[in-house]
């Protein structure tokens, strides 16, 4: 940067949307906890309450942490690319681990209670989303965190990675909405249509999930809010292209 240059600032409105997204995320976690604690008896492992770890883990991992991982490149706009990239991968990895705990909880709970597995639309969508999310994480680490992939191959995969990242976030929220509906129909099918407090609270959680998804999606699709490459990153990118593609900065072989 030139001497006397003003320190970099965030684009107008970005900080406000980041704050709203985090407020929505924390509120949906609190609402999930309130639903499970007030109406479903709470959460405990190796007990009849083990199943309740499933919705809590999926909302925390596959929605809140995944959403925050997607926003890393918007929030940390002026940090080193390597640090931002590592944080992006770390948050996604943490989301996967927490989601795995939630999946284990539901399978163990079903086995204990003699309930069949993987027959509902929610379970199909949820498992497909988790498997694809895991694959996306491995491919992302392979292409962007570890050396080996050429410049052109990275450039091609980056477009796919961004598309599937947003798609999997949408699928995660959709799976959660299906799970909330399924749980309500199993637990309070007789009273759900009478606007009982549990049904209203769970429906509110669904609306919060949609709102969180919309805010995150809006932030990801605002072109002017994308992270600008730093000058040193452009230089490194050109060096990497020269090494992997055999091209000089001028484009000659």
UniProtKB/TrEMBL annotation:
It catalyses: monodehydro-L-ascorbate radical(out) + L-ascorbate(in) = monodehydro-L-ascorbate radical(in) + L-ascorbate(out). The keyword Electron transport applies. GO terms for cellular component: chromaffin granule membrane; lysosomal membrane. Gene3D superfamilies: 1.20.120.1770. The chain crosses the membrane at residues 12-36, 56-76, 88-107, 127-149, 161-180, 200-220. Its cofactor is heme b. GO terms for molecular function: metal ion binding; oxidoreductase activity. It comes from the Eukaryota. Its main location: membrane. Residues 20-221 form the Cytochrome b561 domain. PROSITE patterns: CYTOCHROME_B561. PANTHER family: CYTOCHROME B561-RELATED, TRANSMEMBRANE ASCORBATE-DEPENDENT REDUCTASE CYB561. Transmembrane reductase that uses ascorbate as an electron donor in the cytoplasm and transfers electrons across membranes to reduce monodehydro-L-ascorbate radical in the lumen of secretory vesicles. It is therefore involved the regeneration and homeostasis within secretory vesicles of ascorbate which in turn provides reducing equivalents needed to support the activity of intravesicular enzymes. This is Transmembrane ascorbate-dependent reductase CYB561. The lineage of its organism: Eukaryota, Metazoa, Chordata, Craniata, Vertebrata. The gene is Cyb561.
